[in-house]
Design a protein that fits this description.
The chain is α/β, with parallel strands linked by helices. It is built from 17 helices and 16 strands. The protein has three domains: 18-130, Fumarate Reductase Iron-sulfur Protein, Chain B, domain 2; 141-243 and 401-465, FAD/NAD(P)-binding domain, CATH 3.50.50.60; 245-398, FAD/NAD(P)-binding domain, CATH 3.50.50.60. The chain has a five-stranded parallel sheet with strand order 3-2-1-4-16, covered by helices on one side. The chain has a five-stranded parallel sheet with strand order 6-14-7-8-9. 46% of the residues are buried. It binds flavin-adenine dinucleotide.
Length: 466
């Protein structure tokens, strides 16, 4: 380590300035230069017991890839990550490293932990920008088995990646007109540029993965049809996600100008609703209130600013400490001017004679006993109601599993929460040759957990079919 490198201080990543970025959809962090990446990687102590690896749900060989960056072998570093993670450019950007690998870093507490996510992103970006992705296609010997994947989110894409390399014929069926799941329709461009996902998907297609978009399993064809002679699949992986929005059930929720975060973000991300004369527009509210405290709420509130809102307000029923959103996203939202009303819970959405939103009424809350989730239960304070005037309300309080497959495939065991029940160690469902993973099994979770589940199921499919 050279003298300039301080073991305990993290190399900051350059970012667009808040007052500039809140008017555009370009990515906020700018990435590391080679010099910055080497400096940061050099801080790693290369611990023999490598606790960071246990903090990563897919067990990326973190010290090894950091060493390769330190030695300026950037492409080798990316390949090392790809041994365990097919989407490093995505995970480097959106994984909650601060509660996973970076939390376990031995430098944590003594100083700043190594910026593992930033370095993962650097290696993946460097390889993408400097090298043609290696095409192993010719080397892959086909094994004669056909697998269908329902859903093209991170879970389905991971299964596709694992199985195509193992010689399977792989087809992904995707309900939307664009593949990528939440990574395309949910997470906005300023956190995850769409071209990165498109390149990852294109790479899978070059390897031979077929993607059928606008194909809703359970409507276009039933799950069982995929086993018929017409389709001829030997096994099916269900990675259909949790995209069914939860609403609050309060008066006024049907007013004009109330959106679920999923609808709002999908219209902005996938359907160009930010453009003038878009065919699927959204109200570009001047005063927008977003209800919720997770990543989805932050994404919606920050999108509203970029769509021209003068005020973008978060209402969250617990305190900021309990907010499930990543710290970085809360920080970015605050810097951009999103206002936070914590310990508040909406009780009614107000509208005018035409049913158009004019405001939201909320109670102030205080924290009580711990609830089933281990968090303090918010309790309404008597006579504390207040109103905020607004013209758009976005509900971002969670999503349920997509119900279509559970409803149309009655021979698959489903939990009371509507999730598909699997053996966690294998991804097998109660139906032979049908596997599942990701949010449809866990409920709304994270990209890396969805990918981890895909890897487990792919391993079982290889065992069961070959
Ligand atoms: C706005 C937003 C922000 C988020 N931010 C983060 C973050 O910063 N970090 C993080 O780790 N996680 C984040 N998450 C959560 C993360 O994106 C999900 O946990 C992850 O995408 C789940 O992956 P999946 O493959 O299980 O499902 P999805 O990504 O939901 O993909 C499922 C796919 O299946 C398709 N589908 C559904 N039903 C059918 C059917 N019947 N037939 C065919 N196709 C079907 C859907 O259209 C979808 O494309 C965020 C989620 C949202 C909504």
């Amino acid at each position: 380590m050279d003298k300039k490198t301080d073991r305990f201080t993290r190399t900051p990543m350059r970012e667009q300035k808040p007052d500039v970025r809140k008017h555009n959809f370009d990515e906020v962090p700018c990435g590391y230069s080679e010099e910055e990446a080497v400096r940061e990687a050099t801080r790693c102590l290369q611990c023999k017991h490598a606790p960071c690896i246990n903090g990563c749900p897919v067990h990326i060989k973190i010290p090894e890839f950091l060493k390769l960056i330190e030695e300026k072998k950037y492409s080798d570093a990316a390949q090392k990550i790809k041994e365990d993670n097919a989407l490093p450019a995505v995970c480097g950007r959106v994984c909650p490293q601060e509660i996973q690998c970076e939390l376990k870093c031995v430098l944590h507490g003594k100083g700043a932990p190594i910026a593992i996510g930033n370095l993962e992103r650097f290696a993946a970006d460097w390889q993408r920008e400097h090298q043609q992705a290696p095409l192993e296609r010719c080397a892959i010997k086909k094994n004669g088995k056909k697998v269908a994947i329902v859903g093209s989110g991170p879970s389905g894409l991971t299964v596709a990646d694992e199985l195509i390399r193992a010689g399977f014929e792989v087809t992904i069926f995707e309900a939307l007109h664009v593949a990528g799941g939440v990574l395309m329709y949910g997470i906005p461009e300023f956190r995850l540029p769409k071209r990165i996902m498109q390149e990852e998907i294109h790479h899978l297609e070059l390897l031979g993965v077929k993607i059928e978009t606008n194909f809703v399993v359970g409507k276009t064809a039933e799950l069982d049809d995929l086993f018929s002679d017409e389709y001829g699949f030997d096994a099916i992986y269900i990675g259909s996600g949790a995209g069914l929005p939860v609403f609050m059930g309060i008066p006024g929720e049907n007013s004009v100008g109330v959106y679920s975060a999923n609808e709002y973000l999908t219209r902005s991300n996938l359907m160009g609703a930010y453009k003038q004369n878009a065919t699927t527009p959204i109200s570009h509210g001047k005063h927008v209130v977003v209800v919720g405290g997770g990543n989805v709420a932050m994404d919606a509130a920050r999108t509203a600013l970029r769509l021209g809102a003068e005020h973008s307000v978060i209402i969250y029923r617990r305190s900021e400490v309990e907010m499930p959103a990543r710290d970085e996203d809360v920080q970015h939202a605050k810097e951009e001017g999103v206002e936070f009303h914590c310990l508040c819970n909406p009780v009614a959405i107000l509208s005018d004679a035409k049913g158009v939103v004019t405001g939201i009424r909320s109670s102030r809350m205080e924290l009580g006993e711990l609830d089933d989730s281990g968090r303090a239960r918010p309790v309404a304070i008597k006579d504390s109601e207040f109103e905020i005037a607004c013209d758009v309300v976005i509900i971002a309080i969670g999503n349920h599993p997509n119900p279509l497959i559970p409803q149309t495939a009655p021979d698959i065991d489903i939990s009371s929460r509507g999730t598909i029940i699997v053996d966690e160690t294998t991804g097998r469902t109660s139906k032979k040759y049908v596997y599942a993973g990701g949010d449809i099994v866990t409920g709304s979770a994270t990209v890396i957990l969805a990918m981890g589940a895909g890897k487990i199921a792919a391993k079982s499919m290889i065992e069961d079919l070959l």
